[in-house]
Design goal:
Blueprint (H helix, E strand, L loop, with lengths): L5 E5 L3 H13 L3 E5 L2 H7 L6 E4 L8 H16 L3 E5 L14 E3 H6 L4 H9 L3
Parallel strand pairs: 1-2, 1-3, 3-4, 4-5
Amino acid sequence: MIDGKIILLLDDDVAHLAEVSRYLEGLYCRALRCRTVAAAEQALADAPDFAIVDLFLDGDAGAELSNDFIRGSLLPRHIPYGRMSSAPSLIPADLRGDWVLHKRLFWDNPETLLPLLLQSLTPE
């Protein structure tokens, strides 16, 4: 299944990071919690299997920060990713990754994340 996988989480919402991490750890994944792009860049040293990236990060150009991280760090390393955002319709089409999940759907039912992770992390 997905146990033992390393998942990089990039989101500036502390409560959301904690909840997603708790869920992933319950699936026996290792969650790398990152509130900033700088922290996410450092976490890449742990060779994540997958990343979940929010759209809007803290700062005047939060969307550009997250999108630039994907373009400059995830794509060149061939690290698959999904997006979890409270504004999924604003995610550029070319940066949607394997899937997009509205944060509210996760908060209403965390189990909505599992089939998405399985789709991305299970070999065909």
